[in-house]
Amino acid sequence: MAALTGLFLFNRYKYSTAKYFIYFLVYVIVGDFTNMYTWLVYPDKLLGFLMGTLIEKNYWWSTLFWRIGAIMFFAFYYRKVIKNQSFKKVIKYTSYGFLSFSVGYILLNWKAFFTSYFPIISILGAIIVFLCTVFYFIEILRSDEILTFYKSINFYISFAIFIWWLIITPIVFYDNYTSYEVSVYQRDWDYIKLRRFIYLSANIFMYSTFTFALIWCRPQKK
Length: 222
Hints:
By secondary structure, this protein is mainly α.
């Protein structure tokens, strides 16, 4: 819904930094649909030949696409949005440090990269997001933008992702309880159902906020 709204209203935002956010929403759709390839990794389905291979499960893709990719996007985006040069430098170097650490950690835990999530990467990624949003809030508090903050799409984006990561981050410590073996259904389904409910609720809140912001706000041209 948010991505389609962004594409429909793209001409409104094509001369503002918000266009990059619309690109990101499309990237999320492509990434999420790609993540669903595991639905076909079963003996009698299209991708059954992947059983027993390193990419039988989608932990590797989720880590690259969301836990690293999304964080690097937000670091890039807020460097476009924020004007304070000191804040920009902090975001730049911490995000590069995060990327370097993530690559190194994956290389040192190569086999686990394909069979589990890495909580440390998720936690560090959340810190980057919190850093970006807090810097943005500090900047608008110090400027005249505080008088019209409710008209800024970047305010709603910052508010939504701050709350989303605040809700989701504690769950990463239990993500590996969702691990599975193909065709084996003995899992902690009570926890999995709770996790799905939390993610669904958080996603509805976040993407509804994005959709509202794209419709309600007007672009801030650069």
